[in-house]
Amino acid sequence: MPMVVGVVAGAAFVAVLVVIGLFKMMWRVAEPNEALIISGSKHRTEGLEEGMGFRIVTGRGTLVLPGVQAVRKLSLDLNETELHVDCVTHQGIPLKVRGVVIFKVGDDFVSIANAGRRFLDQQKLMSERVHNVFAGHLRSIVGGLTVEDMIRDREKLTGQTRAACGTEMEKLGLIVDSLQIHEIEDPTGYIQNLAMPHAAAVQRDARIAQAEANRLATEAEQQSFARMAEATRDSEILQAGYQAERDNAGAKARQAGPLADAAARQEVVVQETRVAELEAKRREQQLQADVRKPADAQAYEKRTLAEAERDARISAAEAKAKETELAAAAEATRVKTAAGAEAEATKARGTAMAAATRATGEAEAAAAQARGLAEAEATKAQGLAEAEAIKARAAALAENQEAVVAQQLAENWPEIVKAGASAFGSVDNMVVLNGADGMAEMLAKALTMGGTGLGLARQLLASMNQNGQAANGTSQLNGLVTPSAQKVPVEQDEG
Amino acid sequence: MDDASMVGLMGRVTGTVGPGLVGEVIVRVRGGAEHFLAYPASGTDRIERGTVVMVVEYLPPRTVYVQAAYDS
Question: What's the ipTM?
Answer without folding.
Answer: 0.83
